[in-house]
């Protein structure tokens, strides 16, 4: 019989890549979606009919318990969250509810329904914040710098705690930034590649950005969902850093993206102080040697390949939009 996976956050970037990956592994895939007045299934449109969608919400404990009871999954991947760092200063309480307490609601669902269900928590390198050492590994102390980062620290430790308290096979994946053509357009990489495509095609004349000096360890989402699955296939539950081990500045990303379409970024980019954050995570670089050693995980997409992949995808999409074939 096919193994069953339940994914929260199926409509998000990672949810879409993970659903496709698990279908490829022969899983029966179930996705939790929250109710909205308009459908928001673009990222999984190509999987319609192959993923079973269920309405539930991270804010509603009963909806989660009933969903787990109905699906009876072998594995739960908790990817749902308020995931945009700047919004976490505007809505700190809601971010705490979704991104922090939402994790406990999922774990409580498992505890009440069936403790043998394996659980993956989408933890984040944002937890390292004002980094205590470089590169960051599973033992690096946390110093989160946003309400989002603080909520993720709670989500991480409650995952560890349910493992220790109830023996649940619960893993926390500490993933560094990962991107793709499916990345939300408010995140810096996709904001850049969307703008590059629109500027190249004469549809935009400026790109306003915040801190160009910020450095991130950027990988490809398609690679990172493989690590999530690998964590749940081990004999013992554990926590893993997933990263490329390389860091680049926002400026380098911008430079490469414009270069790819033969433009000079300095002609198009303006720095807007309004886009600076109240507290910044200046630099992140991960040490994924444990994931490499134990999980046999390796990233397959390099930084320049990632930039080119995203620019090419946005160029193709904007061209289709302009021909009136697609609107989003
Ligand atoms: P994303 O594209 O923003 O997707 C977030 C998902 O969460 C969406 O499907 C969203 O649904 C869902 N969601 C939000 N609030 C919900 C609620 N109350 N109930 C049910 N669903 C809700 O995020 P992502 O980039 O795929 O990231 C996946 C997870 O990994 C997130 O937890 C994120 O914080 C974490 N993470 C991401 C990265 C990264 O670089 N991408 C790195 C480390 C950790 P709607 O479509 O309805 O909004
Ligand atoms: O793309 P970002 O918004 O991602 P950030 O804040 O690193 O968070 C992402 O990665 C985390 C993993 O570390 C995830 F947990 C989280 O859910 C999310 O996926 O910003 C990256 C950097 C920041 O330093 C920001 O200040 O880019 C800088 N930046 C400069 N200009 C900008 C902009 N960020 C955005 N979003 N928009 C700008 O115009």
Verbal overview:
With 328 residues, this protein is an alpha/beta fold. Helices cover 40% and strands 15% of the residues. It has ten helices and 13 strands. It has helices at 13-24, 61-71, 87-90, 92-113, 147-166, 188-200, 221-232, 250-260, 289-295, 303-322, and strands spanning 4-8, 28-33, 51-55, 75-78, 118-124, 170-175, 178-179, 207-209, 215-216, 219-220, 240-242, 248-249, 269-271. It has a seven-stranded parallel β-sheet, sandwiched between helices. A two-stranded parallel ribbon has the order 7-10. A two-stranded parallel ribbon has the order 8-13. β1 (4-8), α1 and β2 (28-33) form a beta-alpha-beta unit. The longest helix is centred in the N-terminal third of the chain and has 22 residues, at 92-113. The radius of gyration is 19 Å and the shape is globular. It starts with a strand and ends in a 6-residue tail after the last helix. It binds NADP nicotinamide-adenine-dinucleotide phosphate and ligand G4F. The site of NADP nicotinamide-adenine-dinucleotide phosphate has 25 residues, from α1 and β5.
């Amino acid at each position: 019989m096919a193994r069953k996976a339940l994914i929260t956050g199926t409509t998000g970037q990672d949810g879409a890549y993970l659903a496709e990956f698990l279908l490829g592994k022969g899983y029966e895939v179930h996705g939790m979606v929250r109710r909205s007045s308009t459908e928001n299934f673009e990222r999984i449109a190509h999987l319609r009919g192959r993923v079973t969608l269920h309405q539930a919400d991270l804010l509603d404990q009963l909806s989660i318990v009933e969903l787990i009871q109905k699906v009876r999954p072998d594995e739960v991947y908790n990817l749902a969250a308020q995931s945009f760092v700047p919004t976490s200063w505007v809505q700190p309480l809601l971010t705490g509810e979704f991104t922090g307490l939402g994790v406990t609601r999922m774990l409580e669902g498992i505890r009440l329904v069936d403790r043998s269900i394996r659980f993956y928590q989408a933890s984040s390198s944002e937890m390292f914040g004002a980094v205590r050492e470089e590169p960051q590994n599973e033992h690096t102390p946390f110093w989160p710098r946003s309400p989002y980062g603080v909520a993720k620290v709670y989500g991480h430790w409650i995952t560890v705690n349910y493992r220790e308290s109830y023996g649940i096979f619960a893993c926390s994946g500490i993933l560094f930034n990962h991107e793709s053509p499916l990345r939300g357009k408010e995140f810096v990489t996709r904001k850049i590649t969307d703008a590059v495509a629109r500027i190249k095609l004469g549809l935009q004349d400026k790109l306003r950005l915040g801190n160009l000096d910020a450095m991130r360890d950027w990988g490809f989402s398609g690679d990172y969902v493989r690590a999530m699955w690998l964590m749940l296939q081990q004999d013992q539950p554990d926590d893993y850093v997933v990263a490329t081990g390389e860091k680049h500045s926002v400026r380098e990303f911008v430079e490469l993206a414009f270069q790819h379409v033969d433009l000079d970024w300095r002609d198009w980019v303006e720095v807007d102080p309004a886009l600076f954050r109240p507290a910044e995570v200046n630099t992140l670089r991960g040490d994924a040697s444990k994931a490499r050693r134990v999980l046999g995980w390796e990233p397959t997409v390099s930084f320049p390949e990632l930039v080119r992949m995203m620019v090419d995808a946005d160029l193709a999409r904007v061209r289709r939009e302009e021909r009136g074939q697609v609107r989003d």
